[in-house]
């Protein structure tokens, strides 16, 4: 006997009601973000600029989103991860450079003297980077970077550094790309080091990774072609250097920018200075239990002036402890 039309319709409605929560959950963006001002501001912005009927509509070609890396997409404590890589490289290469035993800042690294290393300041750091990032081809440097990332472990969590990424930010990158945005990294980190993992970890291809660059030269040695990395800083992609590199590499002003420190201030100001609706966000490290809590007094990822400007001008300041259900992919909610 065939079911009566009314009964069949009722059954269909009941099935739809049972499936509806699952369908809503599957479509919900940013699941690791708690429903609050930060998440609401992001979703409202994205919906407004991607709705063709909205006065704030942005054409797909103009949907450029830029992100700092250290402290914005992955952790940066106790030191920037690239600095930890460089220090490990100094130790590995030390037998080839016996003079380092008495030469700063290498002596401080080899003796694990953090105080002496800190006293060397930025000049000392640049010497370490130059010594460990140059004198080889780009292919060789990428291989060394990937080897370290595959074997090194974070001193606090024991996890690979590529697992110390922020799950909410991974979701944001995916959400934006689903909405037609192109996502770029614009970071003070050295560009080749970030390209060693950015596509695999963030889904951001090498051509959309912008960073500090060393000088390089093309070499042809008996038909063996290579790009050799030189121990000379070509561009420091930090602070005011970020808008300069955005203009040089992308050629379009971003409509969305995310950072976490004073080094990102000019990039976010440059983003907001364009016409139409725009978005600037800061990741504020407030979670000492799941990550770290630091801002104004930190020697790593200092957030001071940018925080004051953000609060005064109404930027979105993401409170990590309040706004994120989980920090890392391996965290439980």
TrEMBL record:
Species name: Pseudomonas sichuanensis
Signal peptide as annotated in the record: 1-26
Enzyme class, first EC level, given as a word: hydrolase
Alphabetized UniProt keyword annotations: Hydrolase, Signal
Protein name, UniProt field: HAD family hydrolase
A Pfam family that the UniProt record links to this protein: HAD
InterPro entries: HAD-like_SerB, HAD-like_sf, HAD_sf
Superkingdom of the source species: Bacteria
A GO molecular-function descriptor: hydrolase activity
């Amino acid at each position: 006997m065939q079911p009566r039309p009314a009964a069949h319709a009722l059954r269909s409605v009941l099935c739809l009601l049972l499936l509806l929560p699952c369908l809503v959950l599957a479509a919900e963006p940013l699941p690791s973000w708690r429903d609050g001002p930060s998440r609401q501001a992001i979703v409202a912005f994205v919906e407004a600029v991607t709705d063709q009927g909205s006065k704030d509509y942005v054409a797909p070609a103009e949907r450029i989103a830029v992100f700092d890396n250290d402290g914005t997409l992955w952790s940066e404590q106790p030191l920037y991860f690239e600095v930890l890589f460089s220090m490990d490289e100094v130790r590995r290469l030390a037998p080839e450079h016996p003079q380092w035993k008495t030469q700063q800042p290498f002596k401080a690294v080899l003796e694990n003297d953090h105080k002496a290393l800190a006293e060397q300041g930025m000049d000392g750091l640049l010497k370490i980077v130059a010594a460990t990032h140059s004198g080889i081809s780009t292919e060789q440097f990428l291989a060394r970077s990937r080897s370290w990332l595959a074997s090194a472990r974070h001193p606090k969590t024991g996890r690979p550094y590529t697992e110390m990424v922020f799950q909410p930010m991974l979701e944001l990158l995916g959400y934006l790309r689903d909405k037609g945005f192109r996502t770029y990294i614009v970071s003070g980190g050295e560009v080749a080091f970030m390209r060693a993992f950015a596509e695999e970890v963030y889904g951001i291809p090498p051509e959309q990774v912008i960073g500090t660059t060393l000088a390089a030269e093309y070499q042809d040695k008996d038909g063996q072609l290579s790009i050799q990395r030189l121990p000379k800083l070509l561009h420091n992609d930090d602070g005011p250097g970020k808008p300069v590199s955005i203009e040089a590499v992308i050629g379009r002003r971003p409509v969305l920018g995310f950072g976490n420190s004073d080094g990102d201030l000019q990039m976010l100001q440059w983003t907001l200075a364009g016409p139409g609706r725009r978005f600037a966000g800061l990741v504020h490290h407030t979670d000492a239990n799941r990550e770290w809590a630091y801002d104004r007094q930190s020697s790593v990822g200092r957030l001071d002036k940018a925080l004051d400007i953000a609060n005064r001008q109404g930027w979105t300041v993401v409170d990590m402890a309040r706004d994120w259900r989980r920090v890392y992919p391996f965290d439980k909610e």
